[in-house]
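Input sequence (137 aa), recorded before submission:
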Amino acid sequence: MMSPLTFFIFALALVCTAFASPINGTAAALEKRVTHTGRGTWFNVGLGACGKTNVDSDKIVAISSSIYGNGGNCDQYMHITNTANGKSAWGKVRDSCPGCGPNDIDMSPSLFQELGSLDTGVLKVSWHFENKKFTLP
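Predicted structure, token format:
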């Protein structure tokens, strides 16, 4: 037979173990965020590689072909920052950019204008993908 103190310590250890166990699904939901730095340019949008048609007023991003791959990032939001002025905005991946370097992005005119002037043509930007379940605030 256990002494009351031994029983208490055993019960406390069981409770602590239960609280230390991960909750189903939370470990899989955590994603590592990788920030990329590259050139940001703009283009007139239309039918994109993701199979959807957009207009220039939509906040659309085309990512490099090397990152686009088979389209796994289609409809995923990106957070983009102009490193020169600190302005930032969100855009949705809807196209591939064959002429872009690995970390470069091409943006719709309306998205580009949130970060800088179209007359600039090219911006130095940093960006990262948001979680696939992300929705705009």
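Checked by second reader. The chain has a mean pLDDT of 87.
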